[in-house]
Amino acid sequence: MQRFAGKVALVTGAARGQGAEHARQLVAEGAKVALTDVLHAEGQALAAELGEAALFLPHDVADEAAWLRVLAATRAFAGGLDYLVNNAAIARFASIAETDVAMFEAHQRVNELGVFLGMKHAAPLMAERGGGSIVKSHRSEVSAPAAPTSPMWAPSGRCAA
């Protein structure tokens, strides 16, 4: 049985790891999948592996205009959107003393702003098809425990001082 037959999904951070596995499973279950990532070669290779049910789109999730382009391309490819898997994330671990503002802001832009922009812009496209589902996922390397002094998880309450 193909649980996602006739459905369309967009998976961010899909070039490798957990995102690639999400995409493989969705295609195996009958979905058409737009794969997005900043890792172009890996993303294109995965799309080639998955065949006609997949499309790779270069995508920086922290760029609002890029979301609009990706969603328009997804609509053109598959007719709409039913599922968004917000999987793109970065994890660069350092002590608080070693973390500069640029590193902290990069984490916030990808891991927080990227998720927000995805939800904001995907929801109207999903509504056109009667609704959908949005999943916030993480790559496995992001799920690793942060050092107790790492500021990267402080906004989500995971940092011990």
- Computed over alpha carbons, the radius of gyration is 16 Å
Count structural domains.
1
What is the level-2 CATH architecture name? 3-Layer(aba) Sandwich
Number of strands: 5
| Number of distinct helices | 4
| Biggest sheet overview | 5 strands, parallel
Strand order of the largest sheet: 3-2-1-4-5
The CATH H-level superfamily is NAD(P)-binding Rossmann-like Domain
Strand content: 5-15%
Classified by CATH, the class is Alpha Beta
Shape: globular
Helix/strand structural class? alpha/beta
Q: Regions with pLDDT < 50 over 5+ consecutive residues?
A: 139-149, 153-161
Compute the average pLDDT: 89
What is the ordering of alpha helices and beta strands? Answer: EHEHEHEHE
Straight-line distance between termini? 50 Å
What fold name goes in the CATH topology slot? Rossmann fold
Percent of residues in helical segments?
Answer: 40-55%
Your description of this structure?
By secondary structure, this protein is an alpha/beta fold. The protein has a single domain, classed as 3-Layer(aba) Sandwich (Rossmann fold). Helix content is 40%, strand content 15%. It is built from four helices and five strands; from the N terminus they run E-H-E-H-E-H-E-H-E. It has helices at residues 17-28, 40-50, 64-78, 101-127, and strands spanning 8-12, 32-37, 54-58, 83-86, 133-136. The protein has a five-stranded parallel sheet with strand order 3-2-1-4-5, sandwiched between helices. Strand 1, helix 1 and strand 2 (32-37) form a beta-alpha-beta unit. Helix 3 packs parallel to helix 4. It is globular and about 50 Å long. The termini are far apart. Mean pLDDT is 89; it is low at 139-149 and 153-161.
